[in-house]
Specification:
Length: 843
């Protein structure tokens, strides 16, 4: 059977021409055509040389074959039509698929590709696998794709997830690429590209969240773990592993148990999954001590729940490191202890009161201030411990502060428990602490000593001011008295005792001397008099003075002298000490008009602590006590504060100068001692004099005893040149006349500058310089310093109404400087000048 008739004819001619020799027969040709529905679908042509066969037989045979061939061709045509229909249905199904699909022939070319594939890879080349490899979005996926190609070539199945780019080069997404061999078609492979981008993104999100969760669990500030029924770790986070000195992988892989990390051995019978000393079901929580692999002990809190049972048992456990909490608790405890120590041992009183003024808290210092036990203060009203006069004011301020007003500044109050104890109170309102509403904190600072010091300072300033005034007045008076006494002496040189004017002149001089004594008292109070201290025995002084005292106080007053045993020595000016005792005795006599007893008692006193009496503070030390007490009318409290002031007197006008006790005070203080007085109306008065006790040594032995009496020489005349520098004309005139009268050549200068000029221009040597201390511009010490530059050896006499100490410290050690206090008489001046110029020892 051939495809066309012409072909069949040519085949027949070819066969005839190649017939074998000797054939006998004839050529027969038969042609049959098979048609269906007007179309020729096949043809049968038979041709041959037939020998010995009838033509009919041949024809029948050919017809039969043609019929059979026609039926066969028809069946094949029908089968092809049916198969083409099925292929068309399959092609439509593949094109409708959302997956990109591809059939690759054995030569590597595309045998089939659906629409989805061309949407994914438009303009696809003839080498599809290379195009797919180029579309990989991740170079790391190349190996997976090559594995797919190898499996396809081997005729086996394979699948892999690959990232692919689209035709523009942008990432099209992720695809599950699978390859399957085609049965009966060697070398053919079926490729399917399933888009899993959404699923991949979801998986990425889930993976990211899972990583975050793992990171959170690993790096959380608390530990997480899970153990099985045997206590082996199924899970442990990084934090807990670090606390235990290891890593999660190492702990889980090593198979260590929970109990291996417990610092204390659990009780017998404790489940391996139970870190506590006992077994329990359900939830467990408590504190345990964990020991890390490096030996550190960790105090931890564990809370866990048991999940499952038997082989499926496991725990869900949380671990919290209590170390920071314990450190915080320790710091808080130490802070509280420090605060309690501070509160308890604070040097100032501290109180916490409620809004009605009751004490809620009080420290020890407050109890000492209030004179009560600390525990007895709690619940008591604060104002009950205050002076009655201060209660109303402090109560009003406390109430105002408790109601929200701004707390006032420091409030000064007096306490009721202790006499004369004063405190400054600082108020502050509390907030943000555990206390009742309106609570106040009060700080009590005792200022009794400060107040006394302030009063003492004010008193000392007052006394100093009065003393300076008295000293200044005394200085001016001394200049006047020097002139008065001096000119009286000059007059007395011309008048004899029988002269009528002699008595008048003597009366003037006597009153001038009385005025000089008054001035000395002023100087004694201001501590500006010249003292001549020496070491004396107080007992000897009182024995000698007692006879005079008995005559002074009268017969109606009894004198008792009680001498202390082994009484110490004192270094004082004996004359001034006698003046002190006489003044006190005279005051006592005036206070006992109807008679009484005057007692003088002495004793040694060693004071270990500071003594505060009134405004005076006496430091610790060894003292000699001289106590003068009387049984007189006493002194009121108001007058006690002023009795040592100059010119203050409780006597009637004209009955006293008011300088007696001020003189006593000045002498005692200038000596380095202290004087205190105790008195009350109707109870007499007691004066206590404390003199520093002097320890006798070998050097002091030479200064003990009565000093040689200094008497003017019999012959007061002399020779020499004397320069007298004095800014007060009367004093200078008197001094110049007196010295000229005694044979001296006298040069005069009214100021320090004038005196220095006289020395520089003098034609003859000057033997002695007499100068006042206090002068305008260049004073006496300044003049002497200039003179020493010119005449280092010039002899000098200072004359002044002030004490020698007032200027001596301004001059270095200078043995050629002498001192003559004002007021002085003609004999005293002439005697001092002769003593200095001639160097004679006055007998």
């Amino acid at each position: 059977m051939v495809a066309d008739v012409e072909g069949a004819r040519r085949w027949a001619i070819w066969a005839f021409e190649r017939r074998q020799p000797g054939w006998i027969g004839r050529l027969s040709n038969v042609a049959l055509f098979l048609a269906t529905t007007g179309a020729v679908v096949g043809a049968l042509y038979a041709s041959g040389v037939i020998s010995g066969v009838t033509a009919q037989a041949v024809t029948s045979t050919v017809v039969a074959l043609a019929v059979l061939s026609g039926f066969a061709a028809f069946a094949a045509r029908a089968m092809h039509t049916a198969l083409a229909g099925r292929v068309d249905v399959l092609s439509q199904a593949l094109d409708a698929s959302a997956d990109a699909q591809l059939i690759i022939a054995s030569d590597g070319r595309i045998a089939y590709a659906n629409t989805a594939f061309y949407d994914l890879f438009p303009q696809f080349p003839d080498a599809p696998l290379e195009r797919i490899a180029a579309a990989l979005a991740d170079p790391d996926s190349t190996a997976d794709f090559e594995r797919l190609r190898s499996r396809a070539a081997a005729g086996t199945r394979a699948i892999s997830a690959l990232p692919l780019r689209d035709a523009r080069g942008a990432a099209a997404g992720w695809f599950n690429v699978s390859v399957n061999p085609i049965a009966g078609r060697p070398g053919y492979s079926f490729w399917n590209f399933q888009d899993i981008t959404a699923r991949h993104e979801m998986e990425a999100v889930i993976h990211d969240e899972r990583n975050k969760l793992v990171d959170f669990l690993d790096n959380a500030p608390i530990g997480f773990y899970s153990v099985d029924g045997a206590g082996r770790f199924l899970f442990i986070n990084q934090t807990l592993a670090q606390w235990l000195g290891s890593t999660p992988a190492e702990i889980i892989a090593s198979g260590v148990r929970l109990h291996d990390f417990l610092a204390s051995t659990p009780a017998l019978g404790t489940a391996a999954s139970d870190p506590f000393d006992g077994t329990s079901d359900g939830e467990q929580r408590g504190e345990v001590a964990l020991r890390s692999r490096d030996g550190r002990t960790l105090q931890a809190w564990i809370g866990q729940s048991i999940v499952g049972s038997g082989p499926e048992l496991r725990t869900r456990s949380v671990v919290r490191d209590l170390t920071p909490e314990r450190e915080w608790e320790t710091a808080l405890r130490l802070s509280r202890e420090r605060f309690q120590r501070f509160f308890a041992n604070a040097p100032v009183g501290i109180a916490l009161i409620d809004r009605v003024g009751r004490l809620e808290e009080a420290n020890r210092a407050l109890g000492e201030l209030f004179g009560a036990a600390q525990q007895d203060l709690i619940g008591q009203p604060l104002i009950g411990f205050l002076n009655d006069d201060d209660r109303r004011e402090i109560a009003a301020k406390l109430a105002a502060a408790a109601d929200g007003a701004t707390p006032p500044g420091p409030v000064e109050v007096r306490l009721k428990s202790t006499r004369d104890k004063t405190c400054v109170v600082f108020l502050s309102r509390l907030s943000g602490i555990e206390s009742s509403d309106g609570s106040l904190m009060l700080h009590f600072i005792e200022v009794t000593e400060q107040k006394n010091l302030e009063i003492q300072f004010a008193q000392s300033q007052k006394m100093q001011a009065v003393g300076q005034l008295a000293g200044g007045v005394a200085h001016d008076f001394n200049n006047l008295l020097t002139a008065m006494i001096g000119f009286c002496d000059l007059l007395l040189m011309r008048f004899r005792p029988g002269d009528p004017s002699f008595a008048d002149i003597m009366q003037i001089k006597q009153n001038a001397n009385r005025a000089a004594n008054l001035v000395r008292q002023l100087l004694a109070f201001s501590r500006q008099q010249t003292l001549q201290p020496r070491i004396i025995d107080i007992t000897d002084v009182l024995v000698e003075l007692s006879h005079l005292l008995r005559r002074l106080i009268g017969e109606n007053i009894e004198l008792k002298v009680v001498h202390g045993r082994d009484l110490g020595l004192a270094k004082v000016d004996q004359g001034q000490l006698e003046q002190v005792i006489i003044n006190l005795a005279v005051n006592a006599r005036d206070a006992m008009q109807g008679g009484g007893t005057l007692t003088i008692r002495t004793a040694n006193l060693s004071q270990a602590n500071t003594v505060r009496r009134g405004h005076e503070v006496m430091p610790p030390g060894d003292y000699v006590l001289i106590e003068v007490s009387d049984t007189g009318v006493g002194i009121s409290k108001e007058h006690l504060a002023r009795i040592f002031e100059p010119f203050f007197s409780t006597k009637e006008v004209g009955s006293g100068t008011g300088l007696g006790l001020s003189t006593v005070y000045g002498i005692v203080r200038q000596t380095g001692g202290f004087i205190f007085v105790d008195s009350a109306p109707g109870r007499g008065a007691t004066f206590q004099i404390y003199l520093p006790r002097h320890q006798l040594n070998d050097a002091a032995l030479n200064t003990r005893g009565d000093p040689a009496e200094v008497l003017p020489p019999r012959d007061l005349t002399g020779i020499g040149t004397v320069l007298l520098v004095e800014d007060e004309d009367p004093v200078r005139i008197f001094g110049a006349r007196a010295l000229r009268n005694k044979g001296y050549k006298v040069l005069e200068a009214k100021s320090g500058e004038a005196g220095l000029e006289v020395i520089r221009t003098a034609e003859e040597p000057i033997d002695l310089l007499i100068t006042d201390v206090v002068m305008p511009n260049m004073d006496g010490p300044a003049l002497i310093r200039e003179v020493r530059e010119i005449h280092p050896d010039m002899k000098v006499i200072f004359i002044s109404g002030y004490t020698e100490d007032a200027f001596r410290q301004r001059l270095d050690s200078d043995s050629e400087i002498h001192f003559l206090p004002k007021p002085f008489s003609l004999k005293q001046l002439a005697g001092k000048v002769k003593e200095v110029i001639s160097g004679e020892t006055v007998a």
